[in-house]
Amino acid sequence: MNHIEKSAASVEEALEAALEELGISEQEADIEIVQEPKGGLLGLGSKEAVVRVRPKRDSSEPSQDEVDEQADLATEFLQDLLDKMGIDADVEPHFVDGIMYVEIWGAEGDDEMGILIGRHGSVIDGLQELVRVMVGHRTDSRCRLVVDVEDYQKRRRSRLVSKAKDTARRVQKSGRDEALEPMNAFERKIVHDAISSIGGVESESEGADPERRVVVKKRSSASA
């Protein structure tokens, strides 16, 4: 994906939606304001803000060697963390469907893995953030890894992709917007990626955390 365009009531909202879909920060992006929002008399002739966003050259897809380096760093970091926590588990990287997972597997019959997942994935999301910060600090590049605990993330990704595609197909037929349930940033990114592969629809995030959710819409001419 070279660039994407997003429209919203304000430049800030359009920019946030574009960055979220690309999975990059504002510092990693080249941003062009295509159109400032314009208010019309009694709502007539009003225009939304439109932004065009693309990853900077230095935030392009990394080489496999770079991903492997990140995976090695994360594996060592997580193994050391678990050892200090007294949790008997193995950590190993595994490349699946184009994604580098750093997988945590507990001893057979060990119920401590549920602790590492947490309610609705809250703990595993915390581990993901720790790894993201550590990798960024150590390599001065964007983290390309997904921390997983006994395939929890893979199952979660599969459910979200299926739900996103089913929703997109309904919107294609009905033309009516559909909002999904509130999700965290990791989950919203998965949904945005799935929606972007389906023609005639688009997605944007609305609301504030923890109630922020993805809304699937029929694609507008401004973002076509």
What does this structure look like?
The chain is an alpha+beta fold. The chain has three domains: 1-60; 64-150, 2-Layer Sandwich (GMP Synthetase, Chain A, domain 3), CATH 3.30.300.20; 151-224, 2-Layer Sandwich (Ribosomal Protein S8, Chain: A, domain 1). Helices cover 41% and strands 24% of the residues. It has helices at 11-22, 64-85, 113-117, 122-139, 152-174, 185-196, and strands at residues 4-8, 29-35, 49-55, 89-96, 99-106, 145-149, 178-179, 201-206, 213-218. The protein has a three-stranded antiparallel sheet with strand order 1-3-2. A three-stranded mixed sheet has the order 4-5-6, with helices on both faces. β4 (89-96) and β5 (99-106) form a beta hairpin. α5 (152-174) packs across α6 (185-196). The radius of gyration is 19 Å and the shape is globular. The two termini are 14 Å apart.
Counted up, domains total 3
The number of distinct β-strands equals 9
Strand content: 15-25%
Ends: how far apart? 14 Å
CA radius of gyration is 19 Å
